[in-house]
Amino acid sequence: MDSTGLFDVSGKVAVVTGGSRGIGEMIARALVTNGVRTYITARKADACDATAAALSALGECISLPADLATADGLDAFVTALSEREDRLDILVNNAGAAWGAPLGEFPAQGWDKVLDINMKAPFLLTQALLPQLRAAADPEDPARVIMIGSIDGIRVPIGDNFSYSASKAGVHMLARHLAHFVVDDHITVNTIAPGPFESKMTSYMLDDPGTRDMVVRAVPRGRIGTPEDIAGTVIYLASRAGAYLTGALIPLDGGLSTHG
What we know:
Layout: E1 13-17, H1 22-33, E2 37-41, H2 45-55, E3 61-63, H3 71-84, E4 90-93, H4 109-128, H5 130-136, E5 143-148, H6 162-182, E6 187-194, H7 203-206, H8 209-218, H9 227-238, E7 249-252
Parallel strand pairs: 1-2, 1-4, 2-3, 4-5, 5-6, 6-7
Helix pairs in contact: 1-9, 4-6
């Protein structure tokens, strides 16, 4: 057995949706730093371009802004990527949205927006990029689809983000369902379910010192997630080390989902 190079991902090509900030930027940074040509996409072109420019100091990072929640935006992104790449080793479906409102006042729009971005877009993008994923796939080194779920899709959240928790639970099952259908194509599909990490979505909790302390004390590991935590998990799933894993859900939450 040769265990050298188990976590080597250099030379691969990746797409990270929602890659301009938060967990998506952490993932893109990890891939770029480890020699992966990485395409990031986000709805806001200026932010996407700025992040790609910053990460380009570390390796290859290309900005392809798009609103993947719309049919036109998704088609435009797939076309732009296809003009540049005929194969895709790693697809990270990270882009997400949340909505909070009290029960009894939760609007229909809070379902439409969240489900379109969190569930429909990852499915349709994965489906559209199957030719590129199949072109990169190999029995010993499969193409990888990595879905970003949430511990809010595993345990009942204390907040009123009803559509978000439901959508993330749906993402977890969607990944397992997709994994079943693409295994013969030598494509793996796995999910990471993060707990608290620094992001715009968690800023309402983590920017306030009192609330942040409460969150930290609730995590059995005694801290929030770091860029190294998400980087290590993604590199594992994208490398030879993770080639035998598919249909799995990894709670990256410091043990939070095991309590309550």
